[in-house]
Structure formats: C-alpha cells, structure tokens
Amino acid sequence: MMQNWVLYHIPYMHEREMLRASQHFYEQMKMRRSVRSFSSKPVPLKIVQNLIKTAGKGPSCSPSAGNAQPWKFCVVVSDVRKAEIRALIEADEKENHIRRHGEGSEWVMGVSQLEQTWTRPYLTDAPLLLIVCHEIFTTVENKEIRLFQYNELSTAISVGMLLSAIQYVGLSTVVTSPLNAGPQISRLLRRPQNECVGISSSFAFYKADDESVSELELLIV
User: Fold this and answer.
1) What DSSP character marks residue 34?
2) Are 204 and 41 in contact (CB under 8 A)?
3) Is residue 209 part of a domain?
4) Does residue 84 carry a pLDDT above 60?
5) CA distance 124 to 38
6) What is the pLDDT of residues 38-59, one digit of tens each?
7) Is 58 exposed, middle or buried, given 0-12, 13-18 or 19+ CB atoms closer than 10 A?
8) Centroid of chain to Cα 215
9) Does a structural domain hold residue 4?
10) Domains contained in the chain, number
11) Coiled-coil annotation: which residues (predicted)?
C-alpha cells in the first residue's frame, strides 16, 4: 500500500435499497427553491457546523483538485454586519440595473420575471448569512504561488453539497452574487488578501405563513 493511502470501504447496499434511497433523496432535492422569506427562528449552531463539515471542513466530504480545499465559509450572525453587507450588495445591484445594463437590456429583462429590483431584504431577515470565499493564491516559503488547480470549480462543488445538505435538513436558502461588491465585503470581514468572495447565501427556516414563493417555468432540454 502506498504511503498516506487509506483503505476505502462503503457499506453494501442492495439494489432495492439503492432505488429507495435515491428516490428519497430526489424527492427531498426536488423541493428546493430559492426562498426570499425567512423566519427569525435561530438555527442551532451544531446543525450549522454539520452543514459546513458536509460542504468541506477538515476531512472534507467535497472533492477538490489535489485536496487543496480552497474554500472558506464565513458565517455572519451579527445584525450590524449583515446590514453592512446588504448595503454593499444592494448598492452594486442598483448600479447594475440603472447604469451598467440599462432598463431595456437583456439581463434586466431576464431578472424582471422574478419581480425583484435591487433590494435584498432577505440578507438581513435570515438569522444566518454565509459568505463563501476561495483562495486565489497561496504562500509557500514566503513566495506567492497562484492557484490554478480548479479552485473556483472545487469551491462551486462544495457549495452544491452545502445547498443539498441545507435542503436535506429542512432549511431554506437563496444564493446571491456579490458582483463587484466582493472586495468590499472581503475587507469588511477582514479576510486575507489571498481570498476572493464568490457568493453569499442566506439560509434559515422558511417563514411558514408566507406562501408567495413563485416558480419560473422550467425549460426541459
């Protein structure tokens, strides 16, 4: 056996069990929606920790090239910090709508189906705001080394596992791009210079008395 290799074992599952498990998982995942109405009910810390461990912490469940694990998950619970992040994202979204793209642009027309503007109240409504960063370079023996080992792709895979885990435990989420506000958010959270903000995600219990979730028509190709 090669050095540092470990034996791999997964419990055997009969095909009937596999079918039942795969169907159950699918039924859970197909209920996932981008939710913008959250309850203020706090999510227990241990659940949050388990979700992040699933996405990638320590002996990671998520794959990454060279096992580099380039992601960092920043959990924001401070109302003040959430409000500051919301202000940064909304200011950039407003800039996108009004100046960068223009009212009649294809991008603005596309998101207009969602009946939303640049306001992002869910960033402060949800008790938890997750900022996902990824490393863009690392330092070895005081020398800066750029990361080309699919760091963004590896982080995207870990986010996919995170969203699945959030859905599996009965929580709701919405993913938001920070667009050009990423560097400001990074400085606000005092992240090191070798990290880049990728996405933000609010997640919490769904606000049960709000039935306003809409669904865009899906095009099956």
Assistant:
1) B
2) yes
3) no
4) yes
5) 10
6) 999 999 999 999 999 998 866 6
7) exposed
8) 20
9) no
10) 1
11) none
